[in-house]
């Protein structure tokens, strides 16, 4: 008999009933140090007082209005994002998957309105993850994502990760856009070198193609800048955002330049819940905290501390770990042991990590994790490795 919850997840035998900061408490009372943060979602930890206050204050006023009317919290968050980024305009969604759908529509509508409807091809890269919608899985293109779900949405061209020569050859008269994550998350914490991002920007400019960045996982302070592409000194035309922007409340967004968004006129896209007052009230508070230069400086300092300790961990357990990679507080431990077994060993020691491709475990702690918890985290990972 099928379970009452559709069995599409392979869940760990853990049931968390409360959380505070970087810690979660299981129903049986055990405490776990959360280095996954809901897969980079709880950017400011669990039950953050500032976010709880923002949510409850808004909840006592109005929950939902629909986008038939002006939403003050939505306007506040949109203004903050425009002020702090390359973007001229923002559309709010409920998730990164929905953001991907709009980014694809926006790029194709741009060229349709330019009188070049044949420019529909979107170039993506191996190891990518852009959500699980029809457009998202077609964009990723991997068998794991697409098997059994055909026919796939056409118009996607897949290249190997890091293949700039292939990108040069693939860009053509039918290319609408190039989509890439500045740091791949599901793909195994693989940063795109700054030089490659700059080259992609230049190649897109030469061809006229739009550059779309997927910063759903690597954005919102995760790498020590508000958005990861800032390290390379480039700007996209369109950017997908989600996860950390809501600090745990479902929220996503598409940010765009006025030019890239020019085809998206009244009636071309919509969302019932996107940009609702509750989500945007929380998102505005998240932006207020994370976009602060002093906060981002602390993210970088803590990232250096964690990475230094992880390098020592790898040296101490060469049979379990191979290397540390990533950027900021978006780090991966490349494993020699089976990564899912390392995750399981962590459960036994009271530490939560997230598996990824390329035999990597992801470390995505809250951005405000304390120095003390960083020390404890590596001690628990050390104990897990020793257990193996």
Residue-averaged pLDDT: 97
Shape: globular
Mind describing the biggest β-sheet?
7 strands, mixed
CATH top level assignment of the largest domain: Alpha Beta
Structural class determined from secondary elements? alpha/beta
Number of E-type strands: 17
The CATH homologous superfamily of the largest domain corresponds to: Type I PLP-dependent aspartate aminotransferase-like (Major domain)
This entry's quaternary arrangement is: single chain
Explain what you see.
The protein is of the alpha/beta class and 388 residues long. The protein folds into two domains: 16-48 and 293-387, Aspartate Aminotransferase, domain 1 (Alpha-Beta Complex), CATH 3.90.1150; 50-290, Aspartate Aminotransferase, domain 2, CATH 3.40.640.10. It has helices at 37-40, 49-59, 72-84, 96-113, 134-140, 143-146, 164-170, 194-207, 277-290, 293-316, 339-349, 371-387, and strands spanning 16-20, 23-26, 31-34, 89-93, 121-125, 156-159, 175-180, 183-184, 190-191, 210-214, 238-241, 252-256, 321-327, 330-335, 351-352, 354-356, 360-363. The strands form four sheets. The protein has a seven-stranded mixed sheet with strand order 4-12-11-10-7-5-6, with helices on both faces. A four-stranded mixed sheet has the order 1-2-3-15. A four-stranded antiparallel sheet has the order 13-14-17-16, with helices on one face. The protein is globular.
